[in-house]
Amino acid sequence: MSSPAKKRKLNNDGKQNGVQSKGLEFFFAKQRQNDGQALPSASIGCSNVPSSELTDEELARKLQAEWDQEVANGRHNDNQPPEIPQSMQNSYIESESPDAQPQPEPPASTMQEKPSKALSSTLTLQSTGMAEDCFTSSIPMDRSPLMFEPSKYTDSLKQHWEAEGGNASYALLTRCFVLVSATTSRIKIVDTLVNCLRLLIEGDPSSLLPAVWLATNSISPAYVSLELGLGGSAISKALKHVCGLDNRSLKAIYDKCGDAGDVAFEAKKKQSFTLRKPKPLTIKGVYQSLVKIANTQGQGSAEVKQRIVDRLLQDARGGEESRFLVRTLCQHLRIGAVKTTMLIALSRAFLLSRPPGSTVVIKRNSELSKLRKDELAEIWGKSEEIVKACFARRPDYNDLIPVLLEIGITSELLVRCGLALHVPLRPMLGSITRDLSEMLSKLQGRDFACEYKYDGQRAQVHCDAQGKVSIFSRHLELMTDKYPDLVQLVPKIRGEGVSSFIMEGEVVAVDRGSGELKNFQTLTNRARKDVDIGSIKVDVCLFAFDLMYLNEQPLLDRPLRERRELLKSLFIEVSHHFTWVKGLDATSNDSEAVLDFFKAATENKCEGIMVKSLDNLVDVPYTGDADGQEVEVVEKLSTPKKSKAKTKSRNRGGEGNDKEMGSRRKPLLATYEPDKRLDSWLKVKKDYNSSFDTLDLIPIAGWHGQGRKAKWWSPVLLAVRNEETGLLEAVCKCISGFTDAFYKATKQFYDDGEDSGERKNTRVQKPSFVEYPGPLPDVWFEPQEVWEMAFADITLSPTYTAALGLVSDERGLSLRFPRFLKKRDDKSLEEASTNHFLAGLWRKQEAKVATAKGKDAKEDGVQDDAVDEDVD
Ligand code: ATP
């Protein structure tokens, strides 16, 4: 299953190759066209009668008949497993747990032979729609982990699970999701996850990995393309089958709830019978079912997927299991357990718990409870650093979790789970600077490399000793198929003595003859997948800028100067195919040369320059401001305390700079730091302007325009992301910067269906993941895009709640005079600006005002002195 980022990228590359998931709205729009039609399969029993008019018994029989019909269609004979077309059989992963297998109802022939038995096992009417697992619900998972002893519960849990086949129940994970969803406190979210993970580590370690995948709303790492490929209609059908609803009642619930998960919750409440006794879901079983759905391809796959979805929803106990199952199936879990939260939770869980029989050293609750807050934070921090560093080097839970279970949190984890060929590491990122002078002052006293900032696609090229090549994108997706020309190039650029390597560079469209750079748009015209080397129309050149691994040795800890030396000396230039980024080594005394270099870069179709620290000057204190600089955090993950003093202490800008007082600055190193955005890499872009910050916002709603704009959406409501809660927090309404053509396109893209009759990317009800306390818009948008917005300034708002609690207890932030600049098609929703980033910009703005006031006061003081002197 893809993350939103992954999904968007896959869908975004011009060709739209990925399976387009259709929402429930789409399904209902289709239903509207056929309005009046009841459930399908009209040939069986009483199916011409609308389902709503049937008794439970009749409905149960009708549904059973439909199921039987489906099964009969899908199977050849009694003794075979559910039909899986030949084309899918290899990819069909074997289930470990019995409940994971989609076990169809007995085939029609069996039913005929033994009707009484079949009927007695399937047509028991049970009122289990809302039956929940009460024991699991009673576990106080949201306590502080220092007050929570998993061993108190694991024996009973195991007994409980024994009756259900031995593996941890999905009810446990659901309970965790319910508690996490019920709070916006980051601490509570982490605590709950930690406790849930500990129960699994101690109670059923084999369910830990699937639980982590499910909680992070994915089933595979980004570089393994495993897509569920389920449309909204599969979920609607399943809800109708399982809960005995017809189109009309399902639509009524959908109109009321708006969110597919909430629809499932309500639908389950209405379920008054089951066709057979539900088999309690296990974490493993659910995960394996998702993997099966994703692996099921080819002819007949829709039916197989539908059967698995039906089975999952049928076995879900109670509304909450149904809600989170459906959210998982829609790939939108919204529990705020994004990567960072999960890594923090894992690092704490493994500090406190170990699997049965393990002798790994762990900390006792009693031991940690005695510590001072800062001492505890230091312990948490160290463990977190190790886990995060591992995941940045090898971002795959399939690798991380087994090693954690085996050795716990030790520095050996970095060795056992470090950089690996053909597994992409998370790229190092650059911090934004406003202009050259800010950059020069940040890097004062250091040697740095200025490099052209090419406008292409970042590529991480892996090559092993056997010559196998893998190429990964900035978002870790495998794109070897997209660049067969680069794959073919690798043997030519690999100098003598180079056996294996991981290199990074920018792939740029070029004119093959002259080598002239072409713009990014040209590169996007290249096909995305399975590019045939003979039919390439867009030629590219790889401009290499880093080397992270060479001949089985990671180079991450070497300073850039050394890495660059190796990159330049050991690889061979191939004109207009492979070369190094154009660069200039300088210091802050070379401002004119740097300015000339910057101008040359922009004249050569580059976006600006990247400026990188060359050496590890441990003794040179870093004098830049804290934006983007890594800080050693003493007090990690404290909840944003809503006190004024704290507010002042947070007077720093930059994304993710929510780190608290007590931070110690680290020296600015020139090492390669995966997944970190540090000041050792600075971006200076040509379109930056010192008085001009921008935000990447998500359009979430619109109002009908006035007068000339009546047929379009104007204003449009935009939001920032809250990474902790998963909510989108509205921050402004925008009416400026749009062209008529843009208005028109936007109306077509976010279509309320009034004219066209088919709703697209919009919904009637406010989605529960949107936070906007203002007057209701005319339509809500499905979050789809990122728009770059300019603005005059950021203000404290009595209406908007964006970044509430980060700069003020009572007020959120809003933008004054927001102006649309451009769509950021290159950005996924996950890359839209966060509430913390917004708060950071506000603090920066306030600091500037304070400095300006200080300056004015000083100037006033000088004048006063002068006057005094005169007087004297
Ligand atoms: P980021 O990648 O930092 O999150 P972003 O997606 O907005 O931000 P940019 O601000 O455009 O990207 O800048 C970073 C990108 O610039 C890199 O990911 C890389 O693709 C590209 N780039 C071009 N030239 C270089 C270079 N010489 N060194 C590093 N990156 C470069």
From TrEMBL:
The keyword DNA damage applies. Its EC number is 6.5.1.1. Residues 1-118, 631-669, 849-872 are annotated as: Disordered. It is an enzyme of class 6 (ligase). Signal peptide: none annotated. PROSITE patterns: DNA_LIGASE_A1, DNA_LIGASE_A3. Residues 533-722 form the ATP-dependent DNA ligase family profile domain. Residues 639-651 have a biased composition (Basic residues). Belongs to the ATP-dependent DNA ligase family. This is DNA ligase. It comes from Epichloe bromicola.
